[in-house]
Amino acid sequence: MLYIFQIFQTIGYYGFGTLSPLVLAQKGYNISHSLEYIALSFIGYPLGALLSVPLIEKIDRKWLVSASAFGMGVFGILFGMGTIASMIIVFGFIYTLCSNIFSNAFHVLQAEIFPTEIRATATGAAYSVSRLMSGLMPFILLPVLEHQGATTMFAIVALAMIIVILDISLLAPRTTGRSLEHIENAYDDAPPIRADGVEATK
Question: CA separation (Å) from 134 to 12, 15, 120, 188?
Answer without folding.
Answer: 10, 8, 21, 34
